[in-house]
Amino acid sequence: MPRPTDQSGTYRAYNPAWPPSQPAPWRAGRGALLLYTLVILYASLNPFIGWRKPEVFTLFFWPKYITAFDIVLNVLAYAPLGVLCASLYIAFTRRRDQPRPLPWQQKNTRVLARRAWLLAVLAAGVLSAAIETAQAFLPSRVCSPVDWLSNVFGALLGATFMVAHPGRVLLEKVERWRYRHFASGNWVDWGLLLLGLWLFAQLNPAIPFFEAGNVVNQLVSGEKPHPYDPLYLLPQAVGIALNVCGFVLFITVLLHPAKRIWANVWVVLLLGLVAKVSMASLMLKAPLMIAWMGPGTVIGLTSGLLLAILFSGVKHHWRVFGATLFVFAGGVMAKISSIYNAFDETLRLFDWPYGQLVNFASLTHWVSEIWPLLAFLFLAMVFVKHRRGD
């Protein structure tokens, strides 16, 4: 495996105690902020149809009904936005102030903290106000001052945590963790962002593990195929095996060459599996909690892991090439072999009475569908970049 390089391409030694005086570049931080903002927009304005002139603009009128679930959800949704805005401001200020002392070591520490906090709260408040205004033009949405206040409060909590001492310590630990376990280079940050998207998609228990379709795959005629039918089992197993192999190689491309690769791979796979099983126990009807663990899934997972072991020993350049091919082939095979139910039929698999199910299911579905394409483009660019020696 190649040794880690810095931004100029020069090889440098692995240093597990990455010094805080050399801040992480966080090149993908702006991408994460943009992506999370798009997620909020999608969840708030979906299904984007039926726009009409509002009869009453209710943003300044207190609603008759207020549910605790909606308030908690709005607070939790905007807390990460406050964390992202505040942490990005801190990280960019640290990079700008090099080689001067860190902002937290300077006399204007409180000024910087107030600026980061104020920026995060104002940004979240403006975004929430714009979304609430847009919701007034959608018949399926209701703009409410309670939602706006909950969103601002969530961003306030996130920004307050990030500018406080525990948040600063956490930010430094995250930076150390990133450079301790993953390879050097700005492109790795974008790969980590894709890895976070994959884990987010696993929160939808109606999406099978490492394949497309739904947990209950029906034929067009309405008859359920036999799980051991070769015409059904083999394509499913092959598609899952290709997806598993491509995903494992994708992880190995991001990992630091001085770390134990397979230990980290198992951690990521177990995180995805735990997320899938936990959400299935919370959201799916009891008979469907492990419906995705059919014979095709078991055979595909086992075969994919064995195939990944075979290719994980090759040089980094060819591992990137193999990951690109397997991700592409797995995505295509999953589209060919998987059978989709109508979206309203998929929603019947859930047992979730608290609301926001349509937004959650559709968002995670689209993330799961587009992830192979994004991973393929990312790996292809990494392959070309390394081929040129950049």
Description:
The chain has 390 residues and is an all-alpha fold. The protein is 64% helix and 0% strand. The chain has 12 helices and no strands. Helix 6 (186-201) packs antiparallel against helix 12. The longest helix is centred in the last third of the chain and has 32 residues, at 357-388. It is globular and about 60 Å long.
Quick recap:
The protein has helices spanning 29-45, 68-96, 109-135, 145-163, 165-181, 186-201, 230-254, 261-283, 295-311, 316-337, 343-347, 357-388. It is mostly helical.
Which features would summarize this protein structure in a list?
390 residues; mainly alpha; globular; 12 helices
Strand content: under 5%
Please tally the β strands and state the result.
Answer: 0
Q: What is the count of DSSP helices, taking H or I runs of 4+ residues?
A: 12
Instruction: Kindly state the percentage of residues in helix.
Output: 55-70%
Q: Cα distance, first to last residue?
A: 17 Å
Spatial extent as radius of gyration:
23 Å
Which structural class do the helices and strands define? mainly alpha
Instruction: State the order of secondary-structure elements, H for helix, E for strand.
Output: HHHHHHHHHHHH
- Spans of at least 5 consecutive residues whose pLDDT stays below 50 are 1-25, 99-107, 218-222
Mean pLDDT across residues: 80
Shape: globular
Main beta sheet, described?
none
